[in-house]
Design a protein that fits this description.
With 125 residues, this protein is mainly beta. The protein is 10% helix and 23% strand. One of its GO terms (biological process) is small molecule metabolic process.
């Protein structure tokens, strides 16, 4: 299931250029927490430049870091036995087509992938 923010409203993405508005959820986060009870509107066309950042409220996003071997080897540290937990503010999210300004001639960049799993899964890798 792919849910996107188009014009400040949650939509269920049905193809690369079509989506259905989610009528009974005010935002993407609400839609993600109630997937079994979504009420969908009529299919509409959209383009990538209409997509907005998925979260627009001032909520924190909890993330897990240092949880894969390649990253620890890249920065020359031992993989910890317990991954670190850190937060990102939703203001750090950008829409998919946003231009990101670089600060200086050299930039070290990193991206975060947000995955929502709708099941309790206590031990996965």
């Amino acid at each position: 299931m792919k849910i996107a923010n188009i014009g400040g409203r949650p939509y269920l993405i049905t193809s690369a250029s079509t989506a259905q508005p989610i009528m009974n959820a005010p935002d993407v986060l609400t839609a993600l927490t109630q997937p079994a009870s979504l009420t969908l509107g009529s299919t509409v066309q959209f383009s990538a430049d209409q997509l907005e950042a998925p979260l627009t409220t001032s909520q924190q996003i909890f993330a897990i870091g240092m949880n894969f071997l390649d990253h620890s080897e890249e920065i020359h540290i031992k993989l910890p036995t317990v991954p670190s937990v850190f937060t990102k503010f939703s203001s750090s999210l950008a829409k998919p087509t946003a231009t990101v300004r670089m600060h200086g001639p050299k930039t070290d960049w990193e991206t975060e992938l947000v995955v929502v799993i709708g099941l309790w899964w206590p031990q996965y890798s």
